[in-house]
Fold each of these.
Amino acid sequence: MKKTISFTCLIICTLIWGTTFVAQDTGMDNIGPFTFNSTRFFVAFLAVSPFVFLFEKKKIITQIKNNINQFTKLMIPVGVFLFLGTVFQQVSLLYTNVANSAFFTIFYVPMVPIIIYFIFSEKLHWSIWPSVVACVAGGYFLSNMSDAAIRFGDGLVLIGALFWALHIIYIGKLVKKFDLPFFIALFQNLLVAILSFLLVIVFEEIDFSKIRLETFEILFAGILSGGAAFVLQLFGQRNIPPAPAAIVMSLEGVFAAIAAWIILSQILDFNNIIGCTLILGGVLLSQLVPIYEKNYK
């Protein structure tokens, strides 16, 4: 039952992320990527704050009091990796299109099990590897990449994918030791907002009149993606290990394509349908095969 709830949380999380991609792109029509990220994650910080006081105020003291060093060693990397992942992804949209960005972002799916297996020496179920191949192939078909050239922006997305992978891995370690999903989300949102603001001071100008023009995109990306989705990711990864969790989250591309079909009336061609099918197959393989083997051994 717990795993089913976590799986549902990850599905809703990826649904939100998939529909937020357009807001991330259009949110830079009047402001720079660092300004967008800073305001977006500050809104996310404000959105999560009430839930911390309502549900975790007492738990924060009891869980962190005697484990402050351990919490800090895991929490700081989580915030920094999220910051770097979002920065590279956001800046990449200035140099490449959404289709390319969506495809290369999916490379966090193979990166997660590779890092876990070769660096952290953790064993993985055999179903992870064919699931990874299915998801990457699905991303290729879904993003119409067959005639696209590698560009500077695509390289930025690939670098960002590495940090997304590390973020997923360290989130998995953090939620195993601390049952504080709202507080963790609050902390990482604040850290990303502050670090992004430092980049604003160095590279961009603060113009509130221009920021107001992007109010809808900032609120959408902040409250739903930065607030709700990242909290759901934390709830989801409590009972699903990082490698299969990354495969589930690759559904982000599928939801983005479906949202574009429904909202923007963009037609899903045959390649897109193949891509959706491959990713869905990879997700089901990673989740159902271990359960089947466990029940019938």
Amino acid sequence: MKKGRIIWKIVSVVLLFISFFLLLLLNRSASWFLLNFHEVEIATALYQISSPLKGTEAGVINDYMSQCLYPSISLSIICVLTYIVYRMVEERLMLEADVRIGTLSFHLKSGKRRFMKAGRMIALCALFVLLGSGIWDKAVAAGLPEYIESVTERSTLFETYYVDPDDVAITFPEKKRNLLIIYLESMEATYASKEAGGGKLYDYIPELTELAETNLYFSDDDDLGGARRVPLTGCTMWGILASSAGVPYKLPIEGNSSGEYEKFLPGLKGMGEILEENGYQNYFMCGSDVEFGGRKDFYEQHGIYHIFDYNTAVEDGIIPEDYYEFWGMEDARLYEYAKQELTDIAQRDEPFNFTMLTVDTHRPDGYVCSLCENTYPSQYENVLACASRQADQFIDWVREQDWYENTTVVITGDHLNMKVDFWDDIGDYQRTIYNCFLNLPDGLEAVQTENRIFTIFDMFPTILTAAGVDIEGGRLGLGINLFSDQRTLAEQMGLEMLKRELELYSNYYHMNFVVGSRN
């Protein structure tokens, strides 16, 4: 009997620890999520957190562990130790009291089985209620109900609006133009000053602002502006997928983009396949490990891209074997690597599509390289300014090359910034993704560049059009060619309705892209 009581006490302490730990972890996790992923869909945040550590800057994981996991373990241990000490005192403490009510008097005598036990249970329940209160409110604020709805309800968005590239005529000019696409990490038009059409007090990206104003850009208003945010496009791989294939990322969150599937959306056709089928050589370059987030799978399986990343930079002698900064290699070295490869590629007698992705402006505070100046109070402001200068200097170099005359250049952000402590001064300004088109084909003009409500899906047919490609009907994927006078999907449906439909489960997407195959 005594042995059974001891076992029960041990089990009860373990269960108590688990209960405290789960409640504390959920509470702190909910607060941490709202702090770090404000205005970001749960699916996007889960993807960022669950993606494999290989190739990623581990700051997000380390921050979560230091802010949520470790404190929850420590506080749980403290709570359980307090409880054990309380039990030890309770077992040895006897309370006696004389109580008089009018002419009646009572002598109360209590041990652990009465008042002490009741007090212990009341205290535990109160603590559990205190810890549990607010978790649901935080979950609602984080969008948990919408996430649950998205995996239980169905949409017919793709059946109604999706345009398969194989179903329309896509005609390239006789002399095919090269295509240089530069994805700037988390680059927003918001970073420009209010006077320049952005949302900030100072213009942190003056060079990029000038590039847009002196060339061509599309805006959601009559100022700088850009593409509006929509669900399931909010991290790098998802933004790349949306802008080069016109669809959101709707695979299960498996910690790897391909999840349990052998191939990355084998039934989908995007820009890479279209260019490859028309004689282009595709290239992709980034300063991190290309395997992160499924980028390697996507680019190898959708257009047979030649890939340059942190690992090839080591192999090619761009950086030493033991070199590793931020996500691998900073943008200053990335641009030099790109110059070297572009010079070699341009000497070949074939049109090319060279796509590159920067990284220095990644959350939480960006990377300060040797080229950064200390002009502004915060690190991230200085990183943005440095990124703008470097991009502009790279464009200056591109313009000096012989191959530039026949090359369309597209500069775009991959998604909105996930940094949540940078927007207190923008008021009701609508944050948008930056875009800029340089060196367009002769005769190509946009019907309307301002006051267009568009999304990153529209970049798919728009980029091809900017390279001189004629698209029957002007639509590909869920995107509309912005050079045309057609209304975008966001303009036809309304942005909020489009967002809701994107969040819902799509049987078409699953059967045609995930399960289906073009082979």
Amino acid sequence: MDSNTLQVLIAMVIYMAAVIVIGFVFAKKANANSENYFLGGRSLGPWVTAMSAEASDMSGWLLMGLPGVAYWCGVADAAWTAIGLAVGTYFNWLIVSKRLRRYSIKAGNAITLPDFFSNRFKEKKKVIMTLAALFILIFFTVYAASCFVTCGKLFSTLFGASYQSMVVVGAIFVLLYTILGGFLAESASDFMQSIVMIVALVSVVAIGVVNAGGFAAVIDNAGSIPGFLDFFGLADPVNANGQAIADVTAKALEADSSLAIQAVSENGVAIFGAKARPYGILTVFSMLAWGLGYFGMPQVLLRFMAIREEGELKRSRRIAMIWVIISLAVAVFIGIVGRVIAMTNPEALEGGLLLTNSDAENIFIQLSTSFLPPIIAGFVMAGILAATISSSDSYLLIAASAVAKNIYQGVAKKNASDKSVMTVSRITLLVIALIAMFLAFDENSVIFQIVSFAWAGFGATFGPLMLFSLFWKRTTRAGAIAGMVGGAGMVFLWKLVISTLGGVFAIYELLPAFIFSSICIVVISLLTKKPSEEIEEEFEAVKLGK
């Protein structure tokens, strides 16, 4: 290990030590009871609520996945996704946060999302609770896998170790930290990590622009690539045979992995097709649909439930929006800057050109290690680790609470003690982490693609149900069940079957699944007996702020 790598490692170790200290500080309070462990005793302030919600939401894909998309094929996909996320963030904080905070207390002081849905419909047979917990378990396991992929790519790129071993190291660290401190430690460290993330993003884009020749040079050079800066077109990377990489099938790649490598000219500059690929309005709506996912995202919704005062949510919304807009815009621009440097000065990039879609997600790492002093680069790399930890601990904790609190205590053993609930949750954490590690072992995994599937799963399964539960009194228990099952089922059906038909069917699965789930809720609710008087009175009380 050379001195530069050692400096990077030292900086990252300092950061990880700080995170562990936070875990120890909050361990005693977090482990006092299950409410503290899973929801922090509803004690979060507005700054921690806002920053931890966004840090846990964005994960490593903000620093690796999103810049990688922009680097690979230009602005369109990355920018429309970012716009959809920003709009979704705003409306989630604006229309959902207050009513959910109020309703979660009114509905039996619910401390998990399955608790809330089950209590909202006063169900005796815990069908909604069980289904919600199972869907959380499935999709958060996939989400955790995306975080472990990030750890594997980060550590293997920095230290030259095997990808799989680094996935294991990252998973062990996140697992130990989450078991130690619970929701309070997670939220406090997420606040710190959100600051590290935005500082890292701004630092890398600034140094990248300087080394690319300035802002004007970045725009001029990026604009010379057909479709790269178009909002309604895509740049078209081609392989060594002149074939668009987007047209290379999985079967062909399996037979000849060289097909995934872009052609390079004699001076090492990546080759793109002579014309931009079309980018229709349907694709734009497909990317904007990412914003719909927020209405069903447990890691964000739990922060709404956990804030200490409902009146502080307005301030939290403003803080969250400033952070989100800056972070998303800078992340997209990092991909653009990275592509310009790869075009104009490829020898400056340590590790060489990024020649596959999967490798493109390392552009943030490359810019950091190529142009920043090693010790500073180490702290910037901690930004990626921060994003990964802030998300994976949320995913693991919420999934564990779904099993321990909702299935074990809520269904299987209703008189279970707090101590036994905590034990089951920690066992569940270990099992989920092992499964997620297995899913993450493919080093050619693309973080953005993994996240997009899990995001669609949560958005379609819980998003429509959350909105109808909060704002439509006529929603019934049967409608809620139909909406969850219909939304989740359509995500799998569209992703694995319908989207393979291509054309208009190739849109992001969240959009059709969200619509289908909403239809299921409305139709089944209207066809079944209206909610009881008790449920309607509770709904009206929440609506009036009582």
Amino acid sequence: MKQQWMTGPGHAVVACALSAVMLLAVCGGALAGSSPGAGGGASGVYERDWGTCASAVSAPARRWYLAEGCTAGGFQTWVLVQNPGTRPVDVTMELQTAQGARQGPSDTIPPLSRRTYNLADYVVSYEVSTSVSATGDVVCERAMYGPGRIWGTGATGVTQPAKTWYLAEGCTAGGVETWVLLQNPGATPANVRLTFQTTNGQVRGPTDTIPARTRRTYKLADYVTSYDVATTVTASAGVVCERAMYGDDREWATDSTGISTPSTTWYMSEGCTLPGFETWLLVQNPGDKPVYLTTHLLTDSGEVAGPSARLEAGSRTSFDLSGWAPDKSIAAVVSASGPVVAERAMYGDHRRWGSCSGGSQELSTRWYMAEGCTASGFETWVAVANPGDEPVDVSFQLQTDKGPVAGPSGTIEAHRRRTFDLSGSVTSYNVSSLLEATGPVACERSMYGVGTSRRMCAPVEAPLLYPFTRDGSAACGHWPAGSTDYPYFGAPREGGRLHAGVDIYPATGKGTPVRAVKDGTVIKTGLFYTRATGEQTYAILVDHGDFVANYGEVQPPESWVAPGAHLARGQAFASVSGTVQLHFEMYAPGTTSWSQWYGPQPANLIDPTNDMLELY
């Protein structure tokens, strides 16, 4: 079903099922499920609907600009301000929209602390940029979330406008959207031109005049269709630039601030190629001569060679880093024979979420990160890369709305990277970071959380041994014609009854964890049926709000899985029995028991096939 809705970039679009493509996401609910700690480090129990990432800042400043933002149509935009100094700082914000400037928040931020501002308290608009002025040095970031927080994006602000901007990442093919957001914080109009670099060379984009103290949005698909689209923005006066990208029917989103100056050296601290994760290096050559590129990848266990290539003039190239460092947590060091622009895009949980960040051109012994949250199941990780020849000791000071807290510390060996989990040091919705190191390092921050969307997750992990559709299960050859064991919905069973659900066969068989497809409450547990072997299988009926699900043919449930127990989306609460399958049924809201099906389909029974196909 198609649905028209207004988007963060400020244009009406038709959102429909998009194809899976190569390119891609402050507070939420409890985390559950299983996936490795993205970017490195720790494995744990996490369920992630969105991820954000931003490069650290090596020097605070008194002026900050943030081009992206939306406060209409269910979108949220938050500005995070860190005061790492020892004196209070007064801050004021002006919000620049498509209709002109609006007054934003004004506040005094205590020393060594962090404050958060919801822009919807000051303006409701599909296009909102922010200019921040402070009486002392601060650090600013912006976090934005889509309806239901199904996705999130984040970006570090820039400290001054510029007449030229570069954006290495972008895709306008396969149903992916890419938008460029331009903020004119100045007192005079700015004439702008966009040019796109693709694998097939340069393409001319739009020209426009942006009035003073306003924001404009450009949809790149109106000008170019390509899986590889980088952007160069030139302007007659100083502007500020970001890029937002959406995919998979807007289930994920990513954003990154433009780069005003190309460089021959880039550092990217974050990256992961462990199972279920992808990390891509995007390199733009906006110049008029070819450039030769080499990369080195720093892992938790040492350095490996990365991709090398020739980049033609006016082009953009993508590298899947798993081809050089599979099953690793990685940082990247990029060296080029001429000035280029580099970004890193990362995807996790089989592209449930994505994040993106521009690289850093420098190393430093001090890094600042304004955003962070470690409360209510949020994860905040800091990835630190040491490309030098000597070990480096690092330590964190965490600045919260209640003041400073000592953070983690450790040693990073030469040519390696390491990830630090801030939740072990403080629990707070407002966590900024100051990293101090005994030698020059590169630094990024990643944050993850869970949304409140209606989207389901898979009840057992793929891959599956057999299809569960009518035609697919018949064609696969596992069941003989006329079998009464076909797994599809409505399949004939002995005694004239029909199959009330679908049978899902995980490749890992007996003992595979069964997960809640959404948040829910257990209604009933009980014996489902006894196998010929004597094994007793059980069923667990769960109210998920807009439907009731029956998870059948599972092992005896643990004592805590009882009527009234709350389950979080993705939480493991049962295990597949010796039948090596999960029998999954769906019912209308209000159902209090599972049932057998004879004759006409019961009015409360729902065919789960399409929902499961979307998940597998």
